Automatic annotation (TrEMBL), chain A:
Pfam families: ACT_AHAS_ss, ALS_ss_C. Belongs to the acetolactate synthase small subunit family. It comes from Halobacterium litoreum. Residues 1-38 are annotated as: Disordered. Coiled coil: none annotated. This is Acetolactate synthase small subunit.
From TrEMBL, chain B:
Keywords: Amino-acid biosynthesis, Branched-chain amino acid biosynthesis, Magnesium, Metal-binding, Thiamine pyrophosphate, Transferase. This is Acetolactate synthase. GO terms for biological process: amino acid biosynthetic process; branched-chain amino acid biosynthetic process; sulfur compound biosynthetic process. It is an enzyme of class 2 (transferase). The keyword Isomerase does not apply. The gene is ilvB. Residues 1-37 are annotated as: Disordered. The keyword Ion transport does not apply. Residues 418-567 form the Thiamine pyrophosphate enzyme TPP-binding domain. InterPro entries: Acetolactate_synth_lsu, AHAS_TPP, DHS-like_NAD/FAD-binding_dom, THDP-binding, Thiamin_PyroP_enz_cen_dom, Thiamin_PyroP_enz_TPP-bd_dom, TPP_enz, TPP_enzyme_TPP-bd. It comes from Halobacterium litoreum. Belongs to the TPP enzyme family. Binds 1 thiamine pyrophosphate per subunit. Binds 1 Mg(2+) ion per subunit.
């Protein structure tokens, strides 16, 4: 071991600034901790419909450790485009990063976080025990669902709605012993005249 | 003329493009094939993009492309290992600013490129990789030497393409080329199934162009620039933090002019070395884990950090909570995703580094009053000089070797390194004054980068420019096989192996943080590197004591061709200053006693 080192005062003898940043790199008031709690939001990306685009997008989420709740993808009005809808739960800086990192993926045309009033829908298919068919039917009616299959031992229903409604309905079905559930994840469009994605003219 | 005679109409375009020569006996009417395949379209596209050198290794699936190269003016440099081809292309790109090109076959050839592409990706170096692939009909069948190369390289490339047809493969290559060079640079890859490269096509060269979805902003928003300029003008303790983006964006002139005009001290990141001349009064040199004490004091106590072309890597920031805590941050970057990724920007300015710095310069209402601040910086420079103790009885200090080589060479000498202690000494004790003269593995920290990078840099550099490589014994052992390339091509490079018989940086950390339990970090079995060099046909030298240093350095540099100097350095020497990982930059340790 050499241990000779360099000249100068030891670390604790040096002048120090008083300020601080939080773990997200944001400058903060020394008295107030300003961490952003995670929030749930919907991000919509319009992408060129080419092979591998979903793998690029989903790979981006996994390798950057973004907390993804659901991800849906399918065609749009234009055969060359697909829309990817992602529900994420992240602090604000994370949501900002998701948008920017997604925008960097070459086949991505436009990315945005949707407003709270966006129209979000999910489809769920639920299979329950058929012991109480009338009660199952009543719940299905209450949630505006539809029975897809009713047999002596199982009943399978479909429901669409926003996330809250689907969660509530699934809770209600629990009394019948849920055997299996398949949920599609959220898909969404901005409300009214607001555009979900802005496509530059030269791509139209 | 050929056996495989598909008779096809000559294409108008290629007939017109080719200048008429006497040797052109293949007239359009003689019934011969044009001989154009997907592979020839690939090569024509490279030629059209101005590529003069490619680095690679032959193999089954890439053979058609090599065959097309046979008739091309492009120089192909056969490397010993594909990883080295990627590093050489990376260094070529870093020296010239234009994409370096590497080639490999399918399967193991492609996977061997991975380290080099990941390295280029972290450092935003422009690289185009062309990989062979099994024929389309075998893809997905686990055919011989098949790998999902596009899948494997997706996370480590800016973008990549699976070529689907001989008619469009030229477009794939030209897109890859344009993307690698455009905006924030980076590596791209085109996977070339063998049938795509052997199929006939009328397609010739394709012009490089980026996809329509890619939109790079040149200029920052004028209002934001104005606010940033006002903040800078009002600052008491401003610092410019110049990152690798200053060099890649060709913005060194603008940054230098701005710093000098307004008297603002300049700190660089490691990739930013060379962005500002280190012999200038305003230079505080490199900050971060092994940055200078004065640079780290300056960025810790600044009230206005003007960060240009940096991604705020953790080796630079230490723990972000203690990073420049008092500073308003002006962040200039061409990649919006870098803004507020690691350190929140109070003034985000997205655009080309040179353009935006000029915009700021134009918007400055006045210069900040920095006299007291510059005095303070000078005090820190006196307080924490970059120094080391020399004793004639001790083994040679590595810092002394770096300084001796620096003195013996011109200012425009290119330095490449591996990764480890030697790399830090090469940063700290060499005085860099020009951009694109410091070529190293920054973000990925790839041991073994030095020798192949020296090969790439040599082929990219001007003839009268010297190329030296500082390597460590551990790092050198990872790619020393590339000496065969230096010997074969007679490349004038000088490799200094700072040999401490250890993975020195790991050993330093073990001593500091693992109670000196030196598990697997000591290499008491290293070969004699001078003799190893000679076996490759490379001149070998050895330095064992101070008296040898000056003469041997001169002798090695004078060799017209490759040489290797095995330097027995003091194995007890460690790298200081040091900020422990995640620590506070202002509390850098000056010796083991501080850790």
């Amino acid at each position: 071991m050499s241990g000779q080192g360099l000249p100068g005062p030891a670390p604790e003898d040096r002048e120090r600034p008083t300020g601080r940043r939080n773990s997200q790199g944001i400058r903060i008031d020394p008295e107030a901790e300003a961490e952003h709690p995670p929030r749930r939001t919907v991000i919509s990306a319009l992408v060129e419909h080419e092979p591998g685009v979903l793998a690029r997008v989903s790979g981006l989420f996994s390798r950057r450790q973004f907390n993804i709740e659901s991800l849906t993808v399918a065609d749009t009005q234009n055969d060359d485009w697909a829309r990817i809808t992602v529900v994420v739960e992240e602090p604000d800086p994370g949501i900002d990063q998701i948008e920017k990192q997604l925008a960097k993926v070459v086949p991505v045309i436009h990315v945005r976080e949707l407003e709270d009033d966006a129209l979000t829908r999910e489809l769920v298919v639920v299979k329950v025990d058929a012991d109480k068919p009338h009660e199952v039917q009543a719940i299905t009616d209450m949630y505006g669902g539809r029975t897809l299959d009713a047999g002596p031992r199982t009943i399978t229903v479909e429901l669409t709605g926003d996330e809250q409604k689907i969660d509530d309905a699934i809770d209600a079905y629990r009394q019948f012993n849920i055997r299996e559930i398949a949920r599609t994840g959220q898909t969404a469009l901005a409300r009214g005249e607001t555009k979900t994605a802005v496509v530059p003219d030269y791509l139209k | 003329m050929t056996e495989q005679g598909t008779v096809r109409e000559p294409t108008g375009a290629s007939a017109d493009d080719a200048a008429p020569t006497e040797g052109a006996d293949e007239t359009p009417d003689d019934g011969a094939t044009t001989g154009q395949t997907g592979a020839s379209s690939v090569v024509a596209t490279l030629e059209g993009a101005g590529v003069d050198t490619v680095f690679g290794v032959q193999g089954g699936a890439i053979m058609p492309v090599y065959d097309a190269l046979y008739d091309s003016g492009i120089r192909h440099v056969t490397m010993a290992h594909e990883q080295a081809a990627a590093h050489a292309a990376d260094a070529y790109g870093a020296v010239t600013g234009d994409p370096g090109v590497c080639m490999a076959t399918s399967g193991p050839g492609a996977t061997n490129l991975v380290t080099g592409l990941a390295d280029a990706n972290m450092d935003s170096d422009p690289v185009v990789a062309l990989t062979g692939q099994v024929p389309t009909e075998l893809v997905g069948n686990d055919a011989f030497q098949e790998t999902d190369t596009v899948g494997v390289t997706t996370p480590i490339t800016k973008s990549n393409y699976f070529a689907s047809s001989a008619d469009t493969v030229g477009d794939d290559v030209s897109t890859a080329f344009a993307l690698a060079a455009n905006g924030r640079q980076g590596p791209t890859l085109v996977d070339l199934p063998k049938d795509v490269t052997t199929d006939d096509t009328d397609a010739g060269a394709s012009e490089p162009s980026v996809p329509d979805t890619v939109r790079v902003r040149e200029r920052a928003d004028a209002e934001d620039v104005e606010e940033a300029a006002e903040t800078i003008a009002a600052a008491d303790r401003p610092v410019i933090l110049a990152g690798g983006g200053v060099i890649k964006g060709e913005a060194t002139d603008e940054v230098r002019a701005f710093a000098v005009e307004h008297g603002i001290p300049v700190v660089t990141t490691m990739p930013g070395i060379g962005a500002f001349p280190e012999d200038h009064d305003l230079s505080m040199e490199m900050a971060g884990m092994h940055g200078t004490g004065y640079a780290n004091m300056a960025i810790t106590l600044t009230d206005c950090l003007i960060a240009v072309g940096t991604r705020f890597d953790d080796r630079l920031t230490g723990g972000v909570d203690s990073f420049a805590p008092d500073a308003e941050v002006v962040h200039v970057d061409i990649d919006p995703a870098e803004i507020s990724k690691n350190v929140e920007a109070d003034h985000p300015l997205v655009g080309d580094a040179g353009t935006v710095v000029e915009q700021i310069a134009d918007a400055m209402p006045n210069s900040p009053d920095t006299e007291a601040w510059r005095d303070q910086c000078a005090e820190w420079q006196a307080e924490y000089p970059m120094d080391y103790a020399v004793s004639e009885d001790d083994p040679v200090k590595p810092q002394y070797v770096v300084e001796t080589v620096d003195e013996a060479t011109d200012d425009d000498t290119i330095v490449t390194t591996g990764v480890g202690q030697h790399q830090m000494w090469a940063c700290q004790y060499w005085t860099y004054t020009e951009p694109r003269t410091w070529i190293s593995s920054h973000g990925l920290g790839t041991m073994g980068y030095g020798v192949p990078a020296a090969v790439g840099a040599r082929l990219a550099a001007d003839d009268d420019q010297s190329v030296v490589c500082f390597d460590g014994d551990g790092s050198f052992l990872m790619t020393c096989q590339e000496l065969v390339v230096a010997a074969r091509e007679n490349l004038d490079i000088t490799v200094f192996v700072l040999n401490n018989e250890a993975i020195g940086m790991v050993r330093q950390w073990q001593d500091a943080f693992f109670e000196g339990r030196r598990m697997a970090s000591e290499y008491p079995w290293v070969p004699q590197f001078d003799r190893l060099a000679e076996a490759f046909g490379v001149a070998g030298f050895r330095i064992e004591e101070y008296d040898d240093v000056a003469d041997t350095v001169q002798e090695a540099l004078a060799v017209d061709g490759p040489s290797v100097v095995d330097v027995y350095i003091d194995p007890t020497e460690n790298v200081y200053p040091m900020v422990p990982s995640g620590g506070d930059n202002g509390q850098f340790a000056l010796s083991e006693g501080h850790l």
